[in-house]
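User: Just a sanity check before I run the rest of the batch. Below are the structure tokens for the first item. I only need the designed sequence back.
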């Protein structure tokens, strides 16, 4: 399963329907998408045709 991390204003431990906020080593809170179709955090991925 590919995973996408996006910037989020939520605090660590908060939850939304789409996933869970996690605290990564870089010190920034990220939103952890649990959707199976999520893509890896890579700008090149966004340029691929669906």
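Assistant: Here's the designed sequence for the first item:
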């Amino acid at each position: 399963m590919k995973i996408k991390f996006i910037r989020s204003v939520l605090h660590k431990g908060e939850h939304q329907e789409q996933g869970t906020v996690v605290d990564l080593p870089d010190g920034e809170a990220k939103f952890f998408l649990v959707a199976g179709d999520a893509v890896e955090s890579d700008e090149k991925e966004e340029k691929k045709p669906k």
